[in-house]
Amino acid sequence: MKQKRFSKGIITLVFLLTVCFSTLFANAATAYAKTGDPKLNVKSKAIVKGKDYALKVYNLSETQTVTFASEDEKIASVNEEGVVTAVSIGTTVVTVTITDSEDTESVELQCKITVGPPALFVMFSRQQAELVVGQRAIMYWLIAPLNTAELPKFSSSNPEVASVSAGGVVTAKSAGTAYIFAQLDNGLFTACRFTVAEAVDEGEEIAMEASFEPDEKTELTFADFLINLNAKFTNGDNTSENTGADTAQ
After folding, report:
1. 131-142 per-position pLDDT tens digit
2. pLDDT per position as a tens digit, 186-231
3. Of 18, 34, 111, 183, which is most buried by a Cβ count within 10 Å?
4. pTM of this prediction?
């Protein structure tokens, strides 16, 4: 008899635990399903003339619909899917209107679109540099024309020695030599030769980040290119410097 009562107690306990866990999981699923307010993937975007970029709206419910409109379609147009096409150099705003079949009020989101020309020239601040294993280098790069909307694409000849982020931050992985490249869509590229060494003394303190700002030779080379570029293109667009540097995270 005691055994039967004990078994019934176990069954009852298991049943109660099952109900509790089911309730908890149901509440968790409901909380997870709540998406929050709608938002755009970007609030501002620079696009190269002639290129496309897809705007995306997150946290939409099943009852919400979206429409896109450009403030100036001569600068950038946008289709019903949210794909923005850069038409001419300038700045405009794309407005995203969200309507809900269960709500009379609509919501508007905006994205600032800047259209610039493609890049013609890029160079690193240095052509060679030295790092110690574990260090990161913030590579500065110079790009022209000065009002370009293009960013270079970075790569490493030997990621096991030195890797590079999408923004140009180099991380020294192991002793050796690696070339870091920055390439434009037109095929032009620049390179920096990195020599990575092991720390001489395990107790030696080293700066975790190294910064390689432009030296005099690099600045003069870039200045000469800009002079020649401005002599060839006299549209007056090249008025502000565009110097890129991605900060280490």
Report:
1. 999 999 988 889
2. 999 999 999 999 877 665 566 788 878 887 888 888 888 888 877 7
3. 111
4. 0.69
Contact by Cβ (8 Å): 99, 64: yes
- What contacts 122, CB < 8 A, 6 or more positions away? 141, 142, 143, 144, 152, 182, 183, 184, 188, 189, 190
Q: Transcribe 122-133 into DSSP letters.
A: EEES-SEEEEET
